[in-house]
Amino acid sequence: MRPLRLLILLLVLTIALLVALIRPLPVSAGDAATSNAKQTRKQSNPRRRRHLLAMRAARRREHRLVKYARRFIGVPYEWGGSSPRYGFDCSGFVRYVYQHFGISLPHSSYGDLSRGKRALRKYLKPGDLVFFDGGGHVGIYVGGNRLIDAPHSGAVVHVSTMTDWYSYDYYGARRLLPSS
Question: What angle is formed at CA 133 by the lines to CA 130 and CA 136, rounded to 5 degrees?
Fold first, then answer.
């Protein structure tokens, strides 16, 4: 009988220890009340929840747009081109990608400059349009100081860094995707 009691006592102590490790007791009653109040505020603030959901949705849109644009890596440059079958120029490529997501753009980098909201270079997000050479060239920012574009005759759609020629000729950026 005695070993059974000892075994039950050890089992109860083990369970209590596991519970304490998973959810430690508050230091004082005031700490517990503060912790519970914070938890309740987080759960009961619908504006915060909507904001977080909207931010996640925006990140998913950005990711999908960049992923779709990457499909066309290797498509040859073609002046005036606007399809993967015949080739792209810079604005034709951007137009084709955005059109897939229901955003209509002109076939002109200068026309693209008037769309969306201005975005500062230090706050670029994937999917932002980035402009170079006084607005004469456009690409899609993919993150990590890189862009995907159809650069010039004899080249193909590819990912470039914004640290070489692009760093000197950077002109501005526009955000077309809705963000929070």
Answer: 75
